[in-house]
Amino acid sequence: MAVDATGTARTPYRRSAGTRFSLWAVRFGWRHLVMLAVVAFAVFPVLFVVSAALNPLGTLSSAQLWPTGASLDNARDLFTNTPFTTWYANSLFFAVTNAAATVMLSALAAYAFSRMRFRGRKVGLIGLLVIQMFPQFLAIVAIYLMFTTLGEYYPGIGFDTRWGLLLVYLGGALSINTWLMKGFFDTVPKELDESAQIDGASHAQVFFRIMLPLVTPVLAIVGLLVFISTINEFLMASVFLRDTDAKTLGLGLYQLVSSQRNANFGMFAVGAIMLSLPTLAVFWFLQRYITEGLTAGAVKG
């Protein structure tokens, strides 16, 4: 108990629970409200899609946030009435192959631009910057005419083929990713290369044994970004893949709802969930590299 200057005992002032809560709400409560609003905004579409996938009626008009009489009928219809496994395999092939090839080719090009000096190096770097300023779909007419001619001479890389579309994906992904990796390669001291070369290492040994382990974060980030963009790509695939069995899952799902949007929405929701699973798996596997890979090296060069 406190005593004032006159010797009178005074009970120390204590705020009531309501007052303490009000002070907390003014200082920190708004942050929690904003966080809850953001979480609700992000979770609501996911819950709606999951609910639509479990809705036995399978139509858009009957979709609710909480389904009544949930079942797996939509999944069963998707697997039995459509070539879902073929579409899914095509999507995974394009995503995995494009990510692996882009990472390898971009790393090779970035190493050359970062460590070697040759005629046309500056022009090449400027060209990469100029190319990435224009979206790929602006050249879709020229690419279509080009592959129409190529398909006549080399049917293996024409329309409705995996390798033809893969070449288009590689051409659009190499520029920006090469520049990103080049900035990361520049952060590795050149003394490491020189020391290895003094010991007799070749450029290939320096690249594979020294550089690649040191730039693993940016390799993981580029692979993740290319994987996500490829598995979700729709425009180029819709131009090149016209046969039903050659389509990716995105094209197949669009085919389900393009003419009967209300009737097949349940199957569409199941396919959308299945399409998100590989992305979640790759993101979870590479999550430890994400922060480091996006911040280191991306602003240098």
Automatic annotation (TrEMBL):
It comes from the Bacteria. Keywords: Cell membrane, Membrane, Sugar transport, Transmembrane, Transmembrane helix, Transport. It is found in: Cell membrane. The keyword Cell membrane applies. It is a multi-pass membrane protein. The keyword Transmembrane applies. Residues 88-286 form the ABC transmembrane type-1 domain. SUPFAM superfamilies: MetI-like. InterPro entries: BP-dep_ABC_trans_perm (IPR050901), MetI-like (IPR000515), MetI-like_sf (IPR035906). The chain crosses the membrane at residues 33-54, 87-113, 125-147, 167-185, 206-231, 265-286. Pfam families: BPD_transp_1. Belongs to the binding-protein-dependent transport system permease family. MalFG subfamily. This is Sugar ABC transporter permease. It comes from Nocardiopsis codii.
